[in-house]
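Co-fold these.
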Amino acid sequence: MTHHKSIAKALNLIQGRIDLACEAAGRKDETAALMAVSKMKQAPLIEEALKAGQRLFGENKVQEAQDKWPALKEKYPEAEVHLIGPLQTNKARAAVRLFDAIQSVDRPKLAQILARVMEEEGRKIPIYIQVNTGEEEQKAGVVFDALDEFYKLCRDDLGLKVAGLMCIPPANDHPGPHFALLKRTADRLGIAGLSMGMSGDYEQAVWHGATLVRLGTSIFGARPKL
Ligand SMILES: *Cc1c(COP(=O)(O)O)cnc(C)c1O
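Predicted complex below.
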């Protein structure tokens, strides 16, 4: 059973490890932001994290976030919630209204619709471009060959605010090379944000330059297996 104290403790412990990893990597000037991934977790548990001072959250489904977050945000207006799961174009408007950033932008059609919807809603939120670093068939994300052109489309043609690159390395690979490749690519393109690293590999991600790590299990406990 995960409860109040253990969530606060986990957050503290993880933040300490992030800071150590930054130090070990010689990143004196900065730290990496800790995102609490609250997918499949109920509002009362999320509220424990909010009470412990956590402000950055990630959700992977629009509908689920719509059910939980409006009430939580009313109570904790400083909370910031990012969409980190795949986004269908018919949910783009709901996503723009609800989220503070969208980290899963990975195709021209979606980018175009997001740009239009943000304009119509008068709400320009940052996006991350999701990169399919392992070039996996079933996985979301832009492949490296298409990335430069897609970045240009987002930033120059559509005027989207590209805050960073995001990746989810293949489950069975060593994540290090994927993190390193994403970091090199972001540097080459002059992109500052790097959303990479989860419960099992966030220290490595920080070592490789992550500016934001996304942790669910190690904060809230295991999720039910689907
Ligand atoms: C679920 C999820 C996470 C968190 O994974 P954990 O292993 O529980 O830390 C991070 N990023 C994305 C995109 C996710 O869907």
